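Hi,

Apologies if this is the wrong queue. I'm a grad student, and the batch job for Solute carrier family 12 member 4 from Acipenser ruthenus produced an output file that my downstream script rejects. I'm not sure whether the problem is my script or the file. Here is the sequence I used:
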Amino acid sequence: MPHFTVVPVEDNHTSNYDSLEGINWVDYRDTGQGSRDHNDTVSSDGHGQHKENSPFLNSADTANGNDYYDKNLALFEEELDIRPKVSSLLNRLVNYTNITQGAKEHEEAESADGSKKKIPKAPSMGTLMGVYLPCLQNIFGVILFLRMTWIVGTAGIMQSLLIVLICCCCTMLTAISMSAIATNGVVPAGGAYFMISRSLGPEFGGAVGLCFYLGTTFAAAMYILGAIEILLKYIVPQAAIFHSSDVNDMDSAMLNNMRVYGTLFLSFMAVVVFVGVKYVNKFASLFLACVIISILSIYAGAIKSIFDPPEFPICMLGNRTLSRDLFDVCAKTVVQNNMTVASKLWENFCSTANMTMETCDEYFTHNNVTEIQGIPGLARGIIRDNLWASYMEKGEILEKPGLPSEDVHGSLGNLYLYVSSDIATSFTVLVGIFFPSVTDFSSVVLFGACLEGVVLRDKFGDAVKKTLVVGTLSWPSPWVIVIGSFFSTCGAGLQSLTGAPRLLQAIAKDNIIPFLRVFGHGKANGEPTWALLLTGLIAELGILIASLDMVAPILSMFFLMCYLFVNLACAVQTLLRTPNWRPRFKYYHWALSFLGMSLCLALMFISSWYYALVAMVIAGMIYKYIEYQGPQLLVLLKLDEDLHVKYPRLLTFASQLKAGKGLTIVGSVIQGNYLETFGEAQASEQAIKNMMEIEKVKGFCQVIVANKVRDGIAHLIQSCGLGGMKHNTVVMGWPYGWRQSEDPRAWKTFINTIRCTTAAHLALMVPKNVSFYPSNHERFTEGHVDVWWIVHDGGMLMLLPFLLKQHKVWRKCKMRIFTVAQMNDNSIQMKKDLAMFLYQLRIEAEVEVVEMHNSDISAYTYERTLMMEQRSQMLRQMRLSSAERDREAQLVKDRHSLIRMGSLYSDEEEEVVESIPEKIQMTWTKDKYDAERKNRHNAPQTFRELISIKPDQSNVRRMHTAVKLNEVIVNRSHDAKLVLLNMPGPPRNSDGDENYMEFLEVLTEGLERVLLVRGGGREVITIYS
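Support response: The file is valid. Your script probably expects a header line. Output copied below for reference.
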């Protein structure tokens, strides 16, 4: 757990600076300038307009007219509307409402009178009704009621247990991976897709989401086909529309009936879902009750079979099972009126009611008719006969080993009289059919211990008078299972048709697959109309297949592919140490995910290798289509006159940040004309590539030629990268020597780059004193990486130490997070909120809450501000005088006379001017003369006038922030290996750019390694992922 310390920082009113000779204590608020001018408010729109309703400031600040903004945060006050104070952010994050964080969360200001917070409504369905029981409805569904007994009879108890074990292991391992995903941050509302996509990224999320969608859609088709099978075979067989004239080929007519009724059922269910999901939810409890009652009736019937097994006799001819619905008495002859006459069975095999044997089937004449008990019960020991498998080919007759039988072939025309297999069976086929259910082990043992083997292998209950086989075991009546299973499958189909369109709508709204965008729209209330239409069309494809045994393997493929992607993503993200992968589930290990992935892959090919290949191709195409690389860096380098990289440690820092993973884009700008300098551009690119190889930076290099360096940088920021390789973070060096240069373009290019990255919503990192940064060969065996979290701008400050600690140079450093509490902040509450926030971020760090009291402006701050403004005024006057001399001398320098090898923040960059003649005829009008005279009159003419300048109050406040923060940072982090600090934004009014550079210098004085960080406005590390 993180450690917390609250450290009050006392105001040193008698600092060393205050004891300087000739400097007295100055409080600018007590001077005549204490009343603030309207244009003095820094938080303005650039036109002097106040923004006094900022949602991130306490109302207590509003009460103080002159102290509206915290003086300790004056450097950041221009952007507090988009980059809130830490205290404001934590206060809202700790009151998590299960809704995705967004702009609406910051629309209310903090109120000092303690206004009541909106309490989110509790969900209407809890874990039992909302999660467990619906899953129970899917698990104990169509496969359990219609195919489980057939699987047990065909595979035997031992192999059936093996099938259940394999499938349960697969789902259990996937459940462990899903638990890791669920604990990888707070899970908002949005279902499985939202959880997976936010934790694993869009490429895995999209592939898993679409596989999950297709699986859910085909599940709807499977449930509908199951309902139609129950309806036409067990409830109202006479409702069949198509009938076959060939008694040996009844399957084709049944398939057509399934298609017609399936289409009608699908249409009706789609209309119900379209009209309103509330109707589906109203009947959900009823459908769920049907499932529970049906399952209870099975177990009750099994218990009853111990002492009173139900009467379901099975008629056998030799060792062959007869279809009982075609005759009434299980005998060759019957006695009527004291006379022995041919039975209905005799007439079926002999085609005559006469007692002659000439026309009878050969197998009928050589074998006797016997009757065995179909439900021996738990106490009869039938379990021994059902232990082993009995796989059959298509059309093979069900036989009971142990009964006497003459080895003769009967007539092929009489095959319809026997119970035969409708499909070829094997272990792999049964795995594919069973996987959508993944029921428990008890049902396997229960069915094998109660039912006769030939009854178990009788898929449609032909041997028990067309009774649902699992219904023969139920108590008090088989109709309990028949009616319960029918409503259960209908309910599961409705649930699938309800969930699948919403899943597709969520994928479409994420816009990861552009051509699916139309399915993100729906009715005014958000119902996914278009997604429901597509879902119905895809489900109709499954209905047209018309066979439950053929749809189930397709369904298994998509769910197995979904599970495979989940396990693969978890294993890969753990091995690659992905920044947003920090699960708290203690039983998770990447080896379990890898085992689950391998098991899913094996099950896919075991079930159907050709289906597996098709599913993998589909998922792979989806993945590649929406493939998205992780955070990308654009490193802006400066070259010297010899075309060598001036600060190679920038590349070293980039390689440590990426930890050898991912690609980096390295860019530089050469000033000049491309036609004249393309050779230098190629040489520069080669030099950068060589340095990238030395520093082990993987990626691409791009050198462009531009007339102005700042234009070239803007082009790099806009155009570098493509698709997944588009950068989202810019790294550039500090403009050293800007104070010594009389040319303002040295620091104006730097500030212009900051503004460009902000406009492009890119994050920005500026390593200061980069020459002192460690090389890749150094190792820090101890020390701290300190994060000074002043304002929240997307979480980059939290992410960067985590990334750096993946590299061997920084791995043993510990992370410390410092946050600043103002006078109106509750430090104790901030500590609790920050503890909760860090727990949700899954970050181990030592945290200190530093209290900064509102103090008076010190003499040093006032004097430092005065010196800054005097220097700026002097430089402006010097540049003005130089311009006048140049104009009077009429000397023009041709910008094409020299090939200037500029670079980022180059001191040699000059504004491009149009070529003018060597001699200029000056024409002075009276207006020009008066304007020139007025301009000269306004400029300070003497040094005494320059000294008499009074500092601007907003600059004093900013300098106060820089000085106070610097004192605290140096005091607490002087021994840190690296200090990460929020980078204040440049002023909205460009007239204060030079002062902005001075503020940054003061803010970082006395620190060996500083990384100034400015977020791009997007959340990069959240409690959700």
